[in-house]
Amino acid sequence: MRLLRAELGKLARPLTWAVAGAAILFCVLLAAGGAHNAVASPGGGATVAGQLSPVAAGAEAAGLLASLPGALAIALLAGGHIGGEWSGRTMKNLLTQHGRRWPVLAAKLASLWLAGAAVLAACWLALAAAGPVLSQLDHLPAPHQPLSQAVSLAASQVGRALLVLAVFAAIGLLGATLTRNTIGTMVAATGIFIAMLLAASWPGLGRWSPATWVQSWMRFPAGLGSVTFLPTNFWSRFISASGTGPGPLSGLAGLLALLAACLAVTGWVFSRTDVTG
Amino acid sequence: MDEARFVSALTTGAAAAPIVSLVSDAIRCEGLTKQYRHTVAVHRLDLSVQPGQVFGFLGRNGAGKTTTMRMLLGLIRPTAGRAWLNGRPVPDPGGLARVGAMIEEPAFYPWLTGRRNVQILARSGPPLPAGRPDPVAAALHRVGLDEVAGRKVKTYSQGMRQRLGLAVALLRQPPLLLLDEPGNGLDPAGIREFRHLLRALADSGTTVFLSSHLLAEVEQVCDQVAVLRDGRLVEQGRVAELTARRARVRVVLRPADQPDAQRLLSEWSARADGADALLVATADARRVNQVLGRAGIWADQISVERTGLEETFLAVTGSGPGIEEAADAPAAR
Fold first, then answer.
1. What is the pTM for the complete model shown?
2. Chain B interface, mutation test: which of A10, A96, A111, A276, most B Cβ atoms within 10 Å?
3. Same domain as B269, residue B233
4. Considering only alpha carbons, which residue of chain A is nearest residue B91?
5. Given B206, B221, B238, which residue is the final one in a domain?
6. Distance (Å, rounded) from C-alpha A24 to C-alpha A122?
7. ipTM summary value
């Protein structure tokens, strides 16, 4: 826990604020656009108003953070927080204070995941604050959504997103360990995320693709979704609808396997890497 | 910062550190080797550093000093050989709490203050020794950074970063310090403070393993030195012994006697130094005098010329004039 606290202390940095700010801005602008577009569509207004209610906004934030925006945010944070230890030549300080490498990796992963969770929470808060204002500005109808339903939806999606964020963080950690620098980590992690999406559209790979595991676990609607209204995610629109996708449990198993594989490779590489910078 | 307070604080702090067992070396290497593909960075290094010493680890850039230190700290995996720190085999993550280290130019998180950096590094390792009010503040005070500890590290000069690195190394009051070029960027006053710091630490039982290119400082502060050349240990011993090994006897005599004298002194490799002097590769002036006197050659003057550590270093590492030329250097005394 001491090590984790130390890692969290390092995250109080401009990069974190910038990433969180960008994610919040993205969510709010998307909500503003979605609310505006929904006005002209019959029935759309109530749907979007429901998505933007303060509680249900958690599901919206979770969907966005468990998809490409969240993946990119994690890639950026991984670059600064983990790859930066090599670029900034501070890894030697860390390892001479704490010579065991596995706890260092675990603290890095946990702190990156917590940073992702904090960004999700910040986006939820921002949407919760902005949603009613936007609904009022665009004269959206009342959502007529029971509070219990909103709570259930938000809790479910946030819980699912936390697992996806952990997988994204593990991929960021792997990218950092392989490239050992800030930019390399950002590029590698982003490359892996894009490769995941491209692989998902490969014929016959649907059930075995990490991107479809995310899609099914998060219960994102398959196929190219419309951008007319407020999208629940920025993930399934990049995946071709062809082929049979896995169910949520298969998705969960796939994500857990991916998480374990990333950690195993990262640990193996990191334990054998000379720290020369 | 007031030098007396600086040294006093250091001594007080280091005195509380656990005493190294006298039965084991503070540092021991046996056949330590690191090879990168076709380059041998360190070749079968055998080294022994006794507790309580200030040990100078010298060599030209790329000689393998930093690689050796990194191997000792578990940052680099040796290709072959073994090493022990404080009697425990390396790598020994648990033993790092008893080692303070500063490797090359210290690096920190620039967006954080100096104090926050030290706090974070303190939390990154095992718990600090109990019973001290604020180890972080004490470490910053020791290196004279109290007044700027609240500033972000990105605003620090190189010398201030060096001091901050030293504060981190001293944080746990370890019985063994590994310092790689700690004097880089320090101003003359800082270098002097640093010299006193090292002596104070050694006097209180701390072993200091020091790599530095400030040879004048090394000569003043180190008990022993080892010299690496191309990854191989080429010299090790007390500073006085090393410099004495390269001492020369200068014989001033009549030019007419020079050829005979040179022949008589050939067992030591004597060479002419101008028309009326010889340089003899020995420190035994009495014996030189005796050999010449037996042959009826009387010198006008016989004196021993000692080389400094710098000349010795240059000669040993092959980076300067040869041994005999080094003896001609004006630093001879």
1. 0.84
2. A96
3. no
4. A99
5. B238
6. 7
7. 0.89
